[in-house]
Amino acid sequence: MEPKVQQILAPTDFSVASESSAAWAAWLAQRFGAAVTFLHALEVEWWALPEELVKRAPGTTELRQAARRWAEEELERWSQRFGGGQAVVVEGSPREAIPRASVELGADLVCMGTHGRSGVARTVFGSVAEHVARTAPVPVLTVRPGRSPALARVLAATDFSPAARQAVEWARLLADRCGAELVLLHVVELNPETFASVPKEILAPAVGERIRDYLVSRATQQLRALAREGDRLEVRLGAAGSGVVHAAEELGADLVCTGTRGLTGLAHLLLGSVAECVLRRSPVPVLICHARG
Questions:
Q1: 205 — alpha (psi -120 to 50), left (phi > 0) or beta?
Q2: Are 119 and 227 contained in the same domain?
């Protein structure tokens, strides 16, 4: 079943990052004739609310009621600012509330901002966008502050896995609808797993160049099997995450589409995620897809 865009969920914390993602949500909705639902996950704790609101509320019950009214009014104004749409306020942590709402509201796509934290800030506070991209059952488009909506070139990074195939389908859908060029990219990682797939006759002493040629040729053939007329093919050598980011920069891509296995817990901590590396470092919006269940 081909991907569709009929319902877009646009979470917001009313930040500058959310302004950019809301603009992308509205822009995509126009091109697909889709509906947008603006969502705010309300954390009813004093540290998460405007200072003047906390000062006016004499107790916990009053604070909760005042916070709810404030959030509903702010979200309604936000919705009108970005073309209108349903405005939904839910209580709870954004990390948990956004994936849950994507199911309950029947979203086909989540479009949200990322603050692009790095170093200690990212380690301590984590990233809501990363968590949502890993756990939401639908594709998640993450947008950095200041990125205005425009699509002239879409980069689809693939490792030929089921999740990556889904990312290619979404990339093609977006490129076709927006009149953009589609670039199919595979980054060949020179690691033990890759070498294990090379025929033994090539794995002879002092034939490193032959091995690289074989791997590039094989990847190019695999990309051709996915391509359609007019698609551009790119094969590169290196680490997958940084290779995708560098390709996006060098090729002038406006959007990167990639897949993720959605690892959680210990597996995620040990193995990391190429998709999250791209999300953190990409200068352009990133669409992250899971394999269909």
A1: beta
A2: no
Backbone angles phi, psi at 168, to 5 degrees: -65, -40
User: Of 146, 161, 192, which residue is a domain's last?
Assistant: 146
- Say yes or no: 115 and 168 in one domain: no
* Residues 220 and 208 occupy one common structural domain: yes
User: How confident is the prediction along the chain (293 residues), in pLDDT tens digits per residue?
Assistant: 678 999 999 999 998 889 999 999 999 999 999 999 999 998 765 455 556 655 555 555 677 777 888 899 999 999 999 999 999 999 889 999 999 999 999 999 999 998 644 444 333 334 889 889 989 999 999 999 989 999 999 999 999 999 999 999 999 999 999 999 999 999 998 776 776 777 777 766 556 778 888 889 999 999 999 999 999 999 999 889 999 999 999 999 999 999 987 555 544 443 347 888 899 899 899 999 987 65
The structural domain count of the chain equals: 2
- For the residues of 23-73, what is the DSSP string, one character each? HHHHHHHHHHT-EEEEEEEE--SGGGS-HHHHHH--SHHHHHHHHHHHHHH
**Dihedrals φ, ψ of 191, to 5°?**
-130, 175
Q: What is residue 130's three-state secondary structure? A: helix
Is the distance from CB of 180 to CB of 254 less than 8 angstroms? yes
Q: Which two tokens stand for residue 152?
A: 């002239």
